[in-house]
């Protein structure tokens, strides 16, 4: 069954002469439990696709479906118990004057869920933190710890789909490894479906089963991650990306 | 190695705040010749702090000490503010990470480059403009006349970074410090910017200090690598030999990188050894 289905998604901003079409007939299918990567350069529309699914844009046209439910313009509260998002910059995505506890309780309060204190402390443990973090403020945490909090906040409503927008690009390689391991581990435990945006092909190859390459608002190629390592990429732009990321790592290997 | 452009011995930087002193850089030593020297490490390891001490860009609460801190024949520690001003931006300049934040948003990019030239050369504005247009062409900007008139929000990230490079190189410096010059750029554009830097370095006999957290990029681009951890240089190694790095920290960083070719279920996570802080 597909968990996420996107058919003929179009989106543009502005009108008349200033009309700027950012997505052109995007089609994507992500199976349940799959990790799917969206790759492309900045401005190619990959984050925009996530934002449409998360309900941050309403004026798109086309067909979106998540977990068998059509995504409507006005989203019911239940949508956000299925789909949650993790943002790129953990320094910007947590409220600086809210404690970690407040940040994690807020979604529970919005959805009228009880037993909040216990759920918060369970969730913190699940992402590799503990109760001592509950009453700290974001500035008292490192970048990696903040990203763990952001992941905890997304998972606290027990969603089935996680939208990941460059979740590790603001982190050091050593911390990136920790967060990638955590994401892989959580997916195994909870049977989550991931849709991840990134510009780092190596990260996609590590975490995802399949990926789509986007360029100027279009999906130009969809392929399995294994095909990246061999000679599996067909589209010229994909090959360019593979070559660029290989150049960076191969100089040593050779 | 040819002549030594920059000599650093036992550089220490401490920041004093509310009666507490934080040691950010401890006993860093290196010489820079006509080469591309990389400084890598995680955030907070002190790599940018080293770069900034060379140009005296620290706030007064920073205490910079060293046995030697010499640029050509000038002692940077003893130099007066006036002497430093004659060096900073003229003979030694710095490229910052993100052009979005380092360009003035309300001044045309061409004017900003010309301003850098005029700050150090007493020439008519028209000459500075000529130089700027030449420089823009040098960094492979196709239509210098048009780009000169643009504002920073009208140029892309890659073009913005090439404009920054043009601004830093127009005074013909001997040393360039590049602080994460490509981290804010896409993979495809990164290549282009690195090529421009590479060209300028070899053409003008520059010494380049390349500050980065990206080991893969550095071993491809630089000649020599200093690996920093908690304010110390833990390893200094030729970029080509990085695979044979001996320090566990360097090896840990390399192992933590996900790879296109070899998929692993879990990435090895860096185990930090308290001994690295003293060894």
Describe this structure in words.
The complex is a heterodimer of chains A (254) and B (279). Chain A is an alpha/beta fold. Chain A has one domain (2-253): Rossmann fold, CATH 3.40.50. Helix content of chain A is 37%, strand content 26%. Chain A has nine helices and ten strands. In chain A, the strands form two sheets. In chain A, strands 6-7-8-3-9-10 form a six-stranded mixed β-sheet, with helices on both faces. A four-stranded antiparallel β-sheet of chain A has the order 2-1-4-5, with helices on one face. In chain A, strand 9 and strand 10 form a beta hairpin. In chain A, helix 4 (116-126) packs across helix 5 (143-155) and helix 5 (143-155) runs parallel beside helix 6. The longest helix of chain A has 18 residues, at 173-190. Chain A is globular, with a radius of gyration of 19 Å. Chain A starts with a strand and ends with a helix. The mean pLDDT of chain A is 89. By secondary structure, chain B is α/β, with parallel strands linked by helices. Chain B folds into two domains: 1-91 and 176-279, P-loop containing nucleotide triphosphate hydrolases (Rossmann fold, 3-Layer(aba) Sandwich), CATH 3.40.50.300; 97-170, no CATH class. Chain B is 34% helix and 24% strand. Chain B has helices spanning 47-54, 81-87, 99-102, 109-118, 125-138, 144-148, 157-169, 187-204, 215-221, 248-255; strands at residues 6-17, 20-32, 36-40, 62-65, 68-71, 74-75, 92-95, 175-179, 207-212, 224-229, 232-238. In chain B, the strands form two sheets. In chain B, strands 7-8-9-3-10-11 form a six-stranded mixed β-sheet, sandwiched between helices. In chain B, a hairpin with a 2-residue loop joins strand 1 and strand 2. The longest helix of chain B has 18 residues, at 187-204. Chain B starts with 5 loop residues before the first strand and ends in a 24-residue tail after the last helix. The model of chain B has no long low-confidence stretch (mean pLDDT 90). Chain A binds chain B through residues 41-42, 143, 172-178, 180-181, 184-185, 199-203, 205-207, 225-226, 228-229, 240-242, 244-249, 251-253, and chain B through 42-43, 157, 186-191, 213-217, 219-220, 240, 242-243, 252-253, 256-261, 263-270.
